[in-house]
Design a protein that fits this description.
Helix content is 34%, strand content 21%. By secondary structure, the protein is α/β, with parallel strands linked by helices. Helix 1 packs across helix 7. Bound molecules: flavin mononucleotide (FMN). The site of flavin mononucleotide has 19 residues, from helix 1.
């Protein structure tokens, strides 16, 4: 298990404070392209004075949602006790999210999909069929940015990856203020050679910082 709840907080001037933005990396490849992008997104936020902390999902020992529906009563996931249980407090406290993921088979990775499914506990459902729903995270000024990187050159090769993150986040009540597709990069950390892309990642972080400051 990679993180404790205090590790997803950042210490400023000796005081432990929750991050304003949580950066979430969805690649299983350590020191790969998504990691580099996330570092630059965080750099962009830092330069705008926004506290951010990053978590790599591959370092969390966690499962996908098992559909036990215990969250209907408990309002948080109590059916599983794992790495996501440690992430929830920081996620609720953070006003912003930066999700970064490579395309795997035209979609997000299994890690990112499992993370998104574990946000199901934040929905409120009524007992109708289909169930009417709302989100515990709605109407709180939550904002997000998204980045996806893939090997091939065309939008069709990136597939649904951006949409697969955007739609659930919007349903949960986040405003997606900006997003960044990156094409044509396969080798580990090769994106470091694309200074234009790194600047865009920093700009993406700055966009989120500015949107949160509004
Ligand atoms: C299992 C798997 C599936 C992939 N599927 C796609 C794909 O559908 N389209 C694409 O363009 N690239 C695909 N790729 C390539 C990655 O998106 C690409 O190498 C990316 O730069 C990896 O980022 P990372 O270093 O952050 O993991 C795939 C890679 C793997 C390992």
């Amino acid at each position: 298990m990679g993180y404790t709840s205090t590790q997803i907080q950042q210490t400023v001037a000796g005081q432990s404070v929750k991050p304003v933005v949580l950066g979430i990396g969805g690649s299983p490849r350590k020191n790969g392209n998504s990691d580099v992008l996330l570092q630059h997104i965080v750099k962009g936020m830092d330069e705008d004075g926004i506290r951010a902390e990053s978590v790599q999902l591959r370092d969390l020992d966690f499962k996908g949602c098992i559909g036990c529906e215990r969250c209907r009563q408990d309002k948080i996931c109590t059916g599983l006790h794992d790495g996501m249980s440690l992430l929830y407090p920081g996620l609720v406290e953070s006003k912003g999210l930066a999700l970064v993921c490579p395309t795997h088979n035209y979609n997000v990775t299994a890690w990112m999909k499992a993370f998104i499914d574990r946000l199901y506990c934040f929905y409120n459902f009524q007992d109708t069929r289909p169930r009417a729903w709302s989100s515990q995270l709605a109407d709180q000024g939550r904002k997000a940015v998204l980045a996806v990187i893939c090997e091939q050159a065309g939008e069709e090769d990136m597939g649904f990856a951006l949409q697969a993150m955007r739609r659930p986040l919007e349903a949960l009540g986040y405003e997606v203020v900006d997003e960044m597709p990156v094409f044509g990069i396969f080798d580990r950390a090769k994106v470091k050679q694309r200074t234009d892309v790194l600047s865009m990642a920093e700009q993406l972080g700055a966009s989120l910082a500015e949107a949160l400051a509004e």
